[in-house]
Amino acid sequence: MNNRLGQAFDQIHTPEDLKSRTEELLSLRISKGSVPPKRIWRYAAAVFCMLILAVGALGGWLYFTPVSAISIDINPSLELNINCFDQVVSVDGFNEEGRALAESLELRFIDYASAIDLLLSEQGVESYLKQGEGLSILVVCDDPERSEKMLATVENCTEAQRHVHCHSEGSENAGSAHAAGLSCGKYRAYLELYAVDPSITPQDVQDLTIREIREWTWKLSGITQNSSPENDENTGSAPKADATPEATASSPEPSSANGHNGSGQGHGHGHGKGKHRK
Q1: Sorting pLDDT into bands at 50, 70 and 90, what band is 52?
Q2: DSSP string covering 70-93, please?
Q3: 196: which of 53, 180, 220, 259 fits an S-S bond (Cβ 3.0–4.6 Å)?
């Protein structure tokens, strides 16, 4: 290597001391394995690109990972799955009407408040509301601060509606609800009914509206229509639910959740924050 360099330099008519110093410098850099500046920049660019890809992959994972859900039940029964950016990333229908509604509306990749507004303005949902059907909206979230914020947003979206029941709870019962083929909101109503009559299974309420489930609960509890929670403005309580369904395939055992109904302490399966609107 040194001989080749020497021969090359011999052909160049430059001062001998300059050739000598240049040859010594090149030999020193080669022996120490130094990297040319252009190569260093290429390495830096490659590392930067890898970092960009990693950040992009992480962002994509965060975007498509649900951290909460909003269960909406009137007769269409569906759930909006929400990411940490408050965007709807997927929609699950839990009955025929719910699945049809999820397919007919563009609910994904918009914020959940806009999705709720779209649902409430849908012709079929509007018809149910005009008929006096009860609308149940349940926020399912394990982060108390996020849950409280989401519940406030949901209540703001529905403040112009009547017969609305807004609640929040943790995800403890979500697995049992979905295993039973019910949304979290309908499963909550089922648990109130089950507390009155443990012989009732999730399949018995599968095709019922939220109002029909509640009326069944009131009837078995001896509560008249005029004194039912449905007619209590801004507050409501669920029947006491000390028992839980048996851990069977048709009726999975639920867990408890913490919170309260309305402005006081309500008893359902555990407790959940919420408000009824006449």
Answers
A1: confident
A2: EEEESSSEEEEEE-TTSBEEEEEE
A3: 220
pLDDT for 186-207, tens place per residue?
A: 999 999 999 999 999 999 999 9
With beta carbons less than 8 A apart as the criterion, state whether 194 and 241 touch. Answer: yes
The CA-to-CA distance between both ends of the chain, in Å, stands at 92
Contact 259, 274 (CB under 8 A): yes
- The bridge status of strand 135-141 relative to strand 273-277 is unpaired
Residue pair 119/79 in contact (Cβ under 8 Å)? The answer is no
pLDDT digits (tens, 9 = 90+) for 227-241: 555 554 333 333 334
User: What residue ranges do the domains of the chain occupy?
Assistant: 1-34, 35-64, 68-277
d(CA 254, CA 239): 17
